[in-house]
Amino acid sequence: MFKIGITNHMKINKLFAVGLMMVLTLFVSLKSNGQGQQGVSLDKIIARVDNHYILNSELEEMYNQYKAEGRTAPEKCQLLESLIINKMLLAKAEIDSVLVEDKEVDGELDAKMGYMIQRFGSEKNIVEAYGKSIDNLKAELRQQVKEQKVVEKMQRTISGNVKITPNEVRKFFNSIPKDSLPYIPSEVEIGHIVKLGTVTREQKDKLRQQLVELKQRAEKGEDFATLSQIYSEDLGSAKNGGDLGFAKRGAMVPEFEGAALALKPGEMSDPIESQYGFHLIKMIETRGAEYHARHILLRPDYNKGTDMSQAVRSLDSLRKLIEIDTLKFAKAALDNSDDKMTAESGGLIQDRNTGLSKLTLDASMDPALYFAIDTMKVGELSQPVSYRTEDGSSAMRIIWYKSKSEPHTANLRDDYEKLSQIVLSNKRNNALEEWFKKAQGDVFISIEPEYKNCQVLGLAAAGNDI
């Protein structure tokens, strides 16, 4: 990863303020809400940008996040500046009537929740970590996501049209002193196609029977809501007795909705299978195009009750087609891989820090990948091998060793992509710098006296207004 070409730390902070903020604040508010009971100081307002406020808890969480990840934290003044910049973008979006549609927010919210599930391993772990149901977490995250989408739209408005030319990249490279060119370690490109195991018939029958028994207990007088609290694996609704609230038609998966709408108020369904597991549904009431139901969800155990034979057969077939060049790997991954995050990039595994498909070949690499390609040649496909997905499910995958670069001193031919990213970032940064200079006169910014020594947006915080 290049670390040359931008020497002003404050410029870096401004350029990446939004990206840094939105990665962190999606979790900051959730944590600080729980911490707010520990002391009033955490909720103290330390800055204001028009009608947007910055709490001390936000600043502390950003700072602590760096520490938790083992990174050197920027000075708090720099973090405060990034928070203020973020709020400036929001304030100016309101002034300029920059809006985002609800469907954009909903789509991003689902993606963020998916990321959280992968990060924590399961919904159960999320609930235990935050002490809140999934529904409550989503409600709290929604405003954060909406702000994120507005900020992104403002960024695109400000610098989205910035372009660079090959000549600009060449001039930038030539401006770097030869003795300052970084040394680039070996990098590899690796793709995979993942197939999840199939839940065995025995396990499916077992889950159905468990739900039949729970239905019989409810029919004999036990409270459905209490049974859901005890047995349902949908932890978000289980705390509310399986209550899913009112749902519009089309909001639930078809299998669930079809079974629910066939019920009269007070009736229970037979066990229903969906992509999420097996449901026992109880209809509460209908209201026009909406319906209100409870459910008990039981999920298959993908580790103890999984048949891998079909996954192996599918991957073997794909492997043979790819090897004889009847099918391209990227197309096979897009159409067949159960890892949807990599499928859209042709199966290529991306570096989470850079978003690029080139992975540094060192100790930071996933050990399973490192040892897998150690016995492979570039261009080879592996046999189907066992794989554990990020949510803990058992699967199989084939690995493609696409390319490998040798260690080298940075040069224009091999590292053009990295160099062009730096040039583009610098140019976008300049556009943002100009925008910030103009925008300061359009918004009211106030900072508490304790941060009076901070240089925010190039101006000293005099204890009150900027």
Describe the structure in your own words.
This protein has 466 residues and is of the alpha+beta class. It folds into three domains: 218 residues, Triger factor/SurA peptide-binding fold; 111 residues, Chitinase A, domain 3 (Roll), CATH 3.10.50.40; 98 residues, Chitinase A, domain 3, CATH 3.10.50.40. The chain is 47% helix and 17% strand. It is built from 16 helices and 17 strands. The strands form six sheets. Strands 11-4-13-12 form a four-stranded antiparallel beta sheet. The longest helix has 27 residues. The radius of gyration is 26 Å and the shape is globular. Its EC number is 5.2.1.8. One of its GO terms (molecular function) is peptidyl-prolyl cis-trans isomerase activity. This is Chaperone SurA.
Q: Overall mean pLDDT score?
A: 82
Q: How would you describe the oligomerization state of the chains in this entry? A: single chain
Count of helix runs: 16
Shape: globular
Strands, count: 17
Total domain modules: 3
CATH superfamily of the largest domain: Porin chaperone SurA, peptide-binding domain
CATH class identity of the largest domain = Mainly Alpha
Can you list the strand order of the major beta sheet?
Answer: 11-4-13-12
Query: Which segments are poorly predicted (pLDDT under 50) over 5 or more consecutive residues?
Result: 1-29, 31-42, 460-464
Reported CATH architecture of the largest domain: Orthogonal Bundle
Pairing-aware structural class of the strands and helices? alpha+beta
β-strand percent reads 15-25%
- CATH topology of the largest domain, which one? Triger factor/SurA peptide-binding fold
Radius of gyration: 26 Å
Measure the end-to-end span.
36 Å
